[in-house]
Structures are given as structure tokens and as C-alpha cells.
Design brief:
Strand content of chain A: 5-15%
Protein name (chains A, B): Rrf2 family transcriptional regulator
Bound molecules: iron/sulfur cluster
Number of strands of chain A: 2
Oligomer: homodimer
CATH superfamily of chain A: Winged helix-like DNA-binding domain superfamily/Winged helix DNA-binding domain
Distance between the termini of chain A: 24 Å
GO molecular function (chains A, B): DNA-binding transcription factor activity
Helix content of chain A: 40-55%
Largest sheet of chain A: 2 strands, antiparallel
CATH architecture of chain A: Orthogonal Bundle
Order of helices and strands of chain A: HHHEEHHH
Radius of gyration of chain A: 17 Å
InterPro entries (chains A, B): TR_Rrf2-type_CS (IPR030489), Tscrpt_reg_Rrf2 (IPR000944), WH-like_DNA-bd_sf (IPR036388), WH_DNA-bd_sf (IPR036390)
Amino acid sequence: MKALSQTSKYGIRALLYMVANPSQGEYMSIGEIAKEMDLSFHFLTKIFRELTSNGILNSYRGPAGGVALAKSAESIMLLDVVLALEGNDYFDSCLLGFPRCGIAKPCPVHEFWKVAKADLKDHFSNTSLSQLAEKINADEVRLYD
Amino acid sequence: MKALSQTSKYGIRALLYMVANPSQGEYMSIGEIAKEMDLSFHFLTKIFRELTSNGILNSYRGPAGGVALAKSAESIMLLDVVLALEGNDYFDSCLLGFPRCGIAKPCPVHEFWKVAKADLKDHFSNTSLSQLAEKINADEVRLYD
DNA sequence: ATTAAATAAGAATAAATAGTCTTAAATATG
DNA sequence: CATATTTAAGACTATTTATTCTTATTTAAT
Ligand code: SF4
Ligand code: SF4
């Protein structure tokens, strides 16, 4: 059950690293994040460009440049990140992919699927990066070995 | 949120057609199913071979041959079809795809993800093809326009 | 100015998934 | 036996997703 693309997985993991290891008002270099999280620098750079253009990150070029959260970690929800990286139609998906689907008389799995999607969306929209980072820093949970 | 591959989507749709349009003890040709469900004949044939080798369908070659359910529609669960077509590790997936994940101290989204996957698995394992086909035949729901 | 350090942009390549096509094998019927 | 019908098998092609690479631009420091 592959819910997220590699792009989203890496993006979320990298953001969690940033939030769990804050660098007071400074920019953090993509190279450092990629190295610490064992991700491809070039791929992560591409992912971060998307997050920057979606207002989740700010970036700054040149020496001592890098990326920083554009908003507080409390106000960035998993939903924001997923929509930015998967597209805004992420929760419009159809389980069976029928062509010409009409909600008027839906297909036999729609009732279930509607609820499953709503639950996921609900969880994503109620989970902030800071909530997850708190768990990491409380050592209840880990980002990597 | 793409939960299923095209292979699974088409496979489920085609099976539902078969169950909703039973042909008493006879084999139904893949060509007919593909035509009625507007699927590629060759692709559907490939998918059905997988279902046949997994004991969900029986097949028979030659004139008046085709495919037929290998078990009663009451006893074929959505879960059986999904595992046959997506692989038995379908529900072992990881939301964030961390390498070297240890459940001992899981990553920050694991508690939620575990429950979401269990819910989906539960629903699939409690939903039979006949249950869905009944809804179709009661016209509460539709397979296509 | 020059250099070094960083992200931006997007082309190029690789891998995975989806879909098509060709040939072979099985079976029924005349 | 000859032919038509149908699935089996797998090679082939196309599309999408993932990843890497190259070049350009911005910025700080000397
Ligand atoms: S009704 Fe069925 S086909 Fe339409 S969106 Fe819902 S799950 Fe998909
Ligand atoms: S603990 Fe996290 S990394 Fe491990 S399987 Fe669960 S979701 Fe994935």
C-alpha cells in the first residue's frame, strides 16, 4: 500500500530533521540535511525547490545560505507538505478508477473509500511538524538509527 | 492517494462484472469481459493469468472456454484479490519509507499508520465479491454508466 | 574583482509500471 | 485431420516516476 511517492517521503523526512534539529534563525544547508538523512543531495534539492515555491520553505543562496521554514513548525501540517508534493487532487483519488464516475450513483466501494480518505486527510491536517518533532526529541520515536 | 495499481483496479472491476453477471456454470470469455468493462483485452488476460495462478479463477482454453470463479463469490474477499495482484507484502508498507526501520522504537507516524493499514486490511478482508455484486444488482450502486 | 559556497533550473538517464503484440498451446467441432 | 476459438507465455514498447548530472545564478568574503 504505497500511499506516498518517494518525493513526499523524502520531503517529510527532511523537514522533520530540520524541525528536530533547529538552527536558530540560520539557514540550514541542503547538503547537511541530505548527508544526515542519507538522501541524494540533488533529489532533495529538487524536492525543496517545490516546497519553497509552495511557501513552506524559504531559501537563500550563497555562503551560509540554505533553507529555513517559512512558517512556524506548529503551523506546518503534514497535509500542507503532502498537497504541495503530491498535488492538490491527492484526496480526490478513486479506489477503483472507474471512468466517468458519478457520485450520484457511486461504485460499490465508494462509501468505504470516502471515509478512509477523510480519516487520512483529517489526520494529516491535524498533525504538525512540531508535534512529530517533539516525539523525536522526547526520544519516544526515532528518525533513523 | 493512489492505493492500488492499475492491475488491481482492473482486476477487481472485471471480477465484479463476472459476479454481477453470472453465467451458470459456464466459462465467460475474457474478450466479453474486456469489451463490456472497456478494458484492454491483452492486459486483462495478463491480469487474469495472475488470478488463475493464485487460485481465484479457473480457466479453460478453446471454443466456449474462458474464465470462471474458482470459489464461490461469497468466499472471495477483496483482500484475496489485492494480495494476489499487489503481492503479499502489501500491508507491510511503511508510510515514510525509512531504511532500517525498527518497530522497537518506530518513527513518529507509525502509530497512526499501523491503525490506518489495519482498518483497510480489515475492510478488505470482510468484503466479499458477492457483497459488492449484490449492491450492484440492487442498483444501489453501479459498475459503469 | 575573484573566488568559493550555496540554491535554481532543467536536461539526461535509469528504473518501475502500464500496456501492446506475437507466437504457442489447448480444445471443440465438422 | 483441419479449422476456429480461446487462454498462456513472454517479448516488446510506452509512459510515468525516480534519480543523477550539468550549467546558471546569487551571495559573502577577501
Ligand atoms: S464512486 Fe467509486 S469510482 Fe467513483 S470515486 Fe468513489 S470509489 Fe471511485
Ligand atoms: S515505524 Fe515508521 S518507518 Fe517503520 S514501518 Fe512504521 S511508519 Fe514506517
